[in-house]
């Protein structure tokens, strides 16, 4: 019954032209000085989809979000929203940050109504409505400093919703909250997303959060999308469920592998020689920097059989690199 | 049960800071009464009060206070206003900062009182000279704190404001000015304190009216009670200005827990 209502609301929202924006990112490049953060990133999100992006810190996921929000200029590539240039529909995009970023000198309701045009009474009524949606109608006239972290994020959510965004960008908005408040907020965000049917893009480092909320999970490594996994679990999703846990485990495993493969200490090359007559088998890899040899446990070698000429990555941990002077 | 005890102890706490000053006044009055202190050096507190009462009745006191306060506030309005405007400009626009800030920082190092000889040469010894000195003195306190206030507004909030469609004056009104206000008010409070210092010196240059004139005049006639009255008036006016500034802070910064009324 409740789900029917939600679906009705979605249909209604789409009919009013209030549904999600379709996002089309192609060849996105971003430099900060010498450092290149995004290396020609392509991404397309159909209208109304909830996408979560995970990745190690510094992989470029927040940079992508800031580009979509129009906060930083592009170094190359393009962003299209509903087939138009980003700036044409910029006012239909809203972002929620990791910190609530409420103005401490404005009351809760003034914060929610920030930048909203219209007569005073109209604005107040809409702000009250938005506050009621996040369950904070009774705190309207308090200072933000009186609220808890979770409540502040709910105010920030109301402030974003009041503009009826068609694309909501969430930059780790729940990162600073305790576990219980976080799950509460996830439910609230999911419920509001289903009501308003906007497109949502969530950056998070919490894989469980990504699995709980998203239709699709993306992994960004080195400024590119390297993993794109649909999540077709029925909503609302329960954290303890077997399929939930399996999916979470899969994504985590993938993330851990990436974590080990620090892009700054890797050499691409071909297997040149496999020596098996030593205590530990040795694999010699021919790289542009020369011959690199790695000792591997026999079990690893039998689990991942290598042949001569196979393309491999030779990786070492940065804290195991020793620089010696040549004399 | 505990409330009367509590009230008593809080009442005692309220009185405690006044015990020492009252004791000093009593000793002072007694030593004047018994002739241990010459009235030439220090008149008795009651004599000062009496002198104040007589001058108040004749209306002379009010004229002097009005003239002094008028001078101080006019100087404060000119210097503080200029400081505020220039601070807002250099704080908000990089180009104005590059053009003006170095110059202003150089002038800032001149102690205003060192300018007295030059000011007398430029403006003579009448009102303009006094206004100039006071304005010059309060300008920098307001200027520097406004500049730093604007510069230290949280960039995360400015970014948020922009991404919510604010720009130009609305962004200034909603985010930048309120963010700088605490710092600006520190400048105002500091300037108000400094304003009285400069006023006292300026009024001793030469004046036809004002508290400084009153005390200098009294000195000629060895009226130590009136000299003392003048000093007390300066202290009172200074305190009054400080209280006013603090009230402004309480009103404008009430969102900030550190400033809300206890």
TrEMBL record, chain A:
Task: Give the matching InterPro entries.
Answer: AAA+_ATPase, ABC_transporter-like_ATP-bd, ABC_transporter-like_CS, ABC_transporter_ATP-bind, Mo/tungstate-bd_C_term_dom, Mop_domain, P-loop_NTPase, Transp-assoc_OB_typ1
Domain Mop, chain residue ranges per copy: 260-325
| Alphabetically ordered keywords of this record | ATP-binding, Cell membrane, Membrane, Molybdenum, Nucleotide-binding, Translocase, Transport
Q: Where is the ABC transporter domain?
A: 23-247
Pfam family for this entry, one: ABC_tran
Record-level GO BP terms? molybdate ion transport
Enumerate the GO terms in the molecular function aspect.
ATP binding; ATP hydrolysis activity
PROSITE patterns noted in UniProt: ABC_TRANSPORTER_1 (PS00211), ABC_TRANSPORTER_2 (PS50893), MOP (PS51866)
Family to which the UniProt record says this protein belongs: Belongs to the ABC transporter superfamily.
Q: What is this protein called?
A: ATP-binding cassette domain-containing protein
Protein species of origin:
Candidatus Accumulibacter affinis
UniProtKB/TrEMBL annotation, chain B:
Quote the CDD domains the UniProt record gives: TM_PBP2
Record's GO cellular component, any one?
plasma membrane
Q: InterPro entries recorded for this chain?
A: MetI-like (IPR000515), MetI-like_sf (IPR035906)
Q: Which GO terms describe its biological process?
A: alkanesulfonate transmembrane transport
Does the UniProt entry include the keyword Membrane? yes
UniProt keywords, alphabetically: Cell membrane, Membrane, Transmembrane, Transmembrane helix, Transport
Q: How does it sit in the membrane?
A: Multi-pass membrane protein
What is its subcellular localisation? Answer: Cell membrane
TM stretches of this protein: 15-37, 71-94, 106-125, 131-150, 171-188, 194-214, 226-248
Q: Looking at the record's lineage, which domain of life comes first?
A: Bacteria
Pfam families xrefs: BPD_transp_1 (PF00528)
Kindly indicate whether the keyword Transport belongs to this entry.
yes
Its chief place of residence is membrane
> For the ABC transmembrane type-1 domain, which residue ranges apply?
65-245
Which interval of the chain is the signal sequence?
none
Q: Which family does it belong to?
A: Belongs to the binding-protein-dependent transport system permease family.
Q: What is this protein called?
A: Aliphatic sulfonate ABC transporter permease SsuC
Organism (species): Candidatus Accumulibacter affinis
């Amino acid at each position: 019954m409740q789900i029917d209502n939600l679906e009705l609301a979605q249909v209604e929202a789409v009919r009013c032209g209030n549904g999600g924006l379709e996002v089309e990112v192609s060849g996105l490049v971003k430099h900060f000085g010498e450092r290149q953060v995004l290396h020609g990133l392509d991404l397309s999100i159909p209208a109304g989809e909830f996408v979560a992006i995970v990745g190690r810190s510094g992989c470029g996921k927040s940079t992508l979000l800031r580009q979509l929000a129009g906060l930083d200029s592009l170094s190359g590539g393009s962003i299209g929203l509903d087939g138009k240039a980003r700036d044409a529909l910029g006012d239909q995009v809203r972002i929620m940050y990791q910190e609530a970023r409420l103005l401490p000198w404005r009351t809760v309701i003034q914060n929610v109504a920030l930048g909203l045009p219209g007569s005073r009474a109209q604005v107040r009524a809409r702000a009250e409505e938005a506050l009621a949606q996040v369950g904070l109608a009774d705190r309207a006239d308090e200072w933000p400093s009186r609220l808890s972290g979770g409540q502040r994020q709910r105010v920030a959510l109301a402030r974003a919703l009041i503009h009826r965004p068609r694309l909501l960008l969430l930059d780790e908005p729940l990162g600073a909250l305790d576990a219980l408040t976080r799950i509460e907020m996830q439910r609230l965000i999911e419920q509001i997303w289903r009501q308003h049917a906007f497109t949502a893009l969530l950056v998070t480092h919490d894989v469980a959060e990504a699995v709980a909320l998203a239709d699709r999970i993306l992994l960004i490594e080195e400024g590119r999308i390297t993993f794109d996994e649909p999540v077709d679990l029925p909503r609302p999703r329960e954290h303890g469920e077997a399929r939930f846990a399996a999916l979470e485990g899969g994504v985590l495993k993938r993330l851990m592998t990436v974590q080990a493969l620090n892009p700054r200490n890797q050499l691409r090359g071909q297997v040149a020689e496999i020596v098996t007559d030593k205590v530990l088998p040795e694999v010699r890899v021919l790289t542009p920097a020369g011959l690199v040899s790695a000792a591997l446990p026999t079990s690893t070698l039998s689990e991942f059989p290598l042949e001569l000429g196979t393309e491999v990555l030779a990786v070492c941990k940065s804290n195991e690199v020793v620089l010696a002077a040549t004399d | 049960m505990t409330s009367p005890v509590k009230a008593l102890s809080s009442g005692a706490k309220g009185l405690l800071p006044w015990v020492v000053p009252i004791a000093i006044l009593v000793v002072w009055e007694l030593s004047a009464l018994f002739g241990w202190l010459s009235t030439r050096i220090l008149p008795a507190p009651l004599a000062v009060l009496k002198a104040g009462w007589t001058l108040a009745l004749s209306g002379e006191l009010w004229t002097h206070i009005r003239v002094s306060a008028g001078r101080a506030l006019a100087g404060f309005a000119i210097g503080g206003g200029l400081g505020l405007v220039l601070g807002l400009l250099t704080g908000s626009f990089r180009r104005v900062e590059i053009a003006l800030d170095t110059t202003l920082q150089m002038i800032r190092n001149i102690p205003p009182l060192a300018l007295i000889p030059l000011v007398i040469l430029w403006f003579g010894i009448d009102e303009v000279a006094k206004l100039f000195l006071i304005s010059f003195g309060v300008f920098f306190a307001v200027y520097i704190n406004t500049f730093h206030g604007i510069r230290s507004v949280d960039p995360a909030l400015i970014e948020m404001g922009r991404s919510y469609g604010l720009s130009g004056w609305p962004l200034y009104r909603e985010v930048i000015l309120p963010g700088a206000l605490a710092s600006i008010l520190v400048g105002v409070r500091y300037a108000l304190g400094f304003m009285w210092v400069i006023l006292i010196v300026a009024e001793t240059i030469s004046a036809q009216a004002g508290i400084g004139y009153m005390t200098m005049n009294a000195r000629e006639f060895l009226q130590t009670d009136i000299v003392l009255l003048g000093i007390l008036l300066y202290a009172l006016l200074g305190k009054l200005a400080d209280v006013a500034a603090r009230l402004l802070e309480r009103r404008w910064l009430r969102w900030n827990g550190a400033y809300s009324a206890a």
